Amino acid sequence: MSTALVTGASAGLGVEFAGQLAARGHDVVLVARSRARLEEVAERIRREHRVRAEVVVQDLAAPDAVPNVVAALAERAITVHTLVNNAGFGTAGRFEEIADGRDRDQLMVNVVSLVALTRALVPQVLAERGAIVNVASTAGFQPTPYFATYSAGKAFVLNFSLALRAELKGRAKVLCVCPGPVETNFFDTVEVGRSAAIGGRFTTPEAVVKASLAALDRDRGYLVPGLLNGLNAHLTPRRPRKMVAAIAERITRTALGDALTGTVTR
Ligand SMILES: NC(=O)c1ccc[n+]([C@@H]2O[C@H](COP(=O)([O-])OP(=O)(O)OC[C@H]3O[C@@H](n4cnc5c(N)ncnc54)[C@H](OP(=O)(O)O)[C@@H]3O)[C@@H](O)[C@H]2O)c1
Questions:
Q1: Residue 264 belongs to some domain of the structure
Q2: What is the mean pLDDT of the segment spanning 159-186?
Q3: Residue 1's pLDDT is what?
Q4: H or E segment to which residue 30 belongs
Q5: Which residues participate in catalysis according to the annotation?
Q6: What is the mean pLDDT of residues 181-199?
Q7: Beta bridge partners of 133
């Protein structure tokens, strides 16, 4: 049976990706830091879907994260058919006030480990004529002040995915999923809480993953789940770039309101 590896499979979208891929008959490998939550998810998947579910506990912000994951797969003789790079978290606020090192950790998880894991597993994905699913965000469609590194990282993920898709065309599928606000723990960890949704309409992990797997079936390059999110992502002008950033600054500052604490005033 072909195996899907899902990062960030202890919560939110990752749990849903793992469950829906298992429902399609994939064995699954679940990667994240929280061992107890991963074991719980794995146990439920084995019970409900009668597939193999393996747990790899790994902090993807650590420099040796990807070699550790690759070693764990080799030890268990697992070959990956579908790689879902979903693990991630947001950082938000005035750039100079975000705790030192937090943006670095965020970029390690959201960008550096995503690329490294893709590089490490792409030979397996190609051999299996499988798929790579990268989770970006609607934040990746424009520069987003007060989410400066998060939005830039997600823009990287979107462009990296589209470029890789063009390279791998006909040999493996590559899909980039760009959700708007989804009901997950994301908003418990980002500094500005639920105001990080910036007025967007929330959807469920179940709906996002269902739409993602349907998009993968149709070999689409990227997906913005939800009509309103799609309109926002596609109708937002891209130029003049400085003006787009200035308008985004106003919109985001207004949406964040009191959540944007600090001493710098305008
Ligand atoms: N929710 C939204 O509104 C939204 C919108 C657009 C894009 N996204 C993207 O969707 C993806 C999934 O997020 P979510 O919404 O499902 O949030 P979530 O419920 O907070 O789940 C995040 C997952 O990432 C894992 N993770 C975080 N830091 C990690 C680290 N250092 N090492 C390994 N795993 C780590 C977490 O596991 P552990 O804590 O156990 O390590 C958890 O399984 C992220 O890439 C996020 O940027 C979310």
A1: no
A2: 98
A3: 76
A4: strand 27-32
A5: 150
A6: 93
A7: 84, 175
Sign, Cα dihedral of 7, 13, 18, 24: negative
Highest mean pLDDT among 1-5, 197-201, 220-224: 220-224
Site of tokens 């912000």: 61
Q: What whole-number distance in Å separates Cα of residue 38 and Cα of residue 31?
A: 8
* Block residue for tokens 């596609």: 234
91: in domain: yes
Tell me, in angstroms, the distance from the centre of ligand 1 to residue 55's CA: 17
Atom 23 in ligand 1: residue holding the nearest Cα:
8
* Secondary structure (3-state) at 6: strand
Q: Is 147 in the pocket of ligand 1 (CB under 6 A)?
A: no
Please tell me the predicted confidence (pLDDT) of residue 265: 42
In this structure, what DSSP letter does residue 201 have? P
Residue 247 has pLDDT above 80, yes or no: yes
Distance 187 CA to ligand 1 centre (A): 10
Q: What is the CATH number of the domain that holds 16?
A: 3.40.50.720
* Strands (DSSP E) found in 71-121: 80-85
Q: Does the beta carbon of 204 sit less than 6 angstroms from any atom of ligand 1?
A: no
Number of the ligand 1 atom closest to the C-alpha atom of 9: 43
User: 70: which 2 tokens?
Assistant: 């690759």
The CB of 59 under 6 Å from ligand 1? The reply is yes
Number of domains the chain is built from: 1
Whether the CB of 190 sits within 6 Å of ligand 1: no
Tell me whether residue 266 is in a domain. Answer: no
Cα separation of 213 and 209, whole Å? 6
**Which residue range forms the structural domain that includes residue 59?**
3-259
Q: For residue 265, is it within any domain? A: no
